[in-house]
Amino acid sequence: MKRLLVVIFVLMMLIAAVVGGSSMLKEIRLNRVKATGISCFASMRVLEGAIELYFIDHKEVEKTVEAVNDLINKRMNELIQGKYLRESLQDQVQGYFHELPIPKNALPVCHISTVASGTDYILECSLHGSQDAPRRLDELLKLIRLDPDGNYDASK
User: Alpha helices of the chain — where are they, by DSSP H?
Assistant: First the structure.
């Protein structure tokens, strides 16, 4: 009788560990997705500061949406060589997605571009949105093909 109770107790503990482990895995994966957004917005703030300093030093270049897009998409090396940035921030957040259960050939790309905003511009990420209008977690999960539990879903 005592052995039966011990076996039942051990089975209950194993079931609890499996259920707890799967919910922890879900939280870890969803927190990783949230962390990519935080990292992306931090990169956008750094890039925005570098762009502003570049245009302060290069008054001969008119600061337009097209000029900013050209700078971050085609001439990022000018920002690096001018010591405005240490390294390219374009698509940098993609590395954080390697820790998620996403196939290597389907890793999402986090690409920053410039969008007109009245007389100025705002930086916007293809995945995370802008700092003023971040993409909701459920929308981001759909974009990177994860279900609400953080598992990869190729059918999305």
Answer: 2-57, 65-73, 76-81, 137-143
Pairing of strands 112-117, 129-130: unpaired
**Token match 């920053």: residue?**
112
Tens digits of residue pLDDT in 81-104: 999 988 877 666 655 676 677 787
List, for residues 15-48, the tens digit of each pLDDT value.
Answer: 665 555 556 777 888 888 888 888 889 888 999 9
- Enter the pTM of the model: 0.75
How far is Cα of residue 69 from the mean position of the Cα atoms in its chain? 20
CB 54 within 8 A of CB 71: yes
Q: DSSP class of residue 98? A: G
